Amino acid sequence: MKFTEEHEWLRVEGDLVVVGITEHAAEQLGDIVFVELPELERVVARGDDAVVIESVKAASDILAPLDGEIVEVNTTLADNPGLVNEDPLGAGWFFKMKVDDLSALDDYMDEDAYKEMIG
User: Fold this and answer.
1) 50, 63 contact by CB (below 8 A)
2) Fold assignment, 2-118
């Protein structure tokens, strides 16, 4: 698993990358009340807005961490956005993407580096 400075996690599953937010991010946001997921087959570039989440504290954009295509979204979050708080590293994932270059994951932190960043 890799981590971004924006508190996203990235997990490779076969030739796809699954994207969600970390426990730290979920705690900082507070209770999540709404998730707007990206459209299927949308092509995104690294840094593009991909997901909008709203919590009791704030609204936040989740950025596409890599260049690629959104191939699956977690539709469960539409009815149960709180799943992101309950299981951010598991059932609370946002989308899966087919990426152009998996080696781009090398740009991101491993778990130890992420833990050091959030201190």
Assistant:
1) yes
2) OB fold (Dihydrolipoamide Acetyltransferase, E2P) (2.40.50)
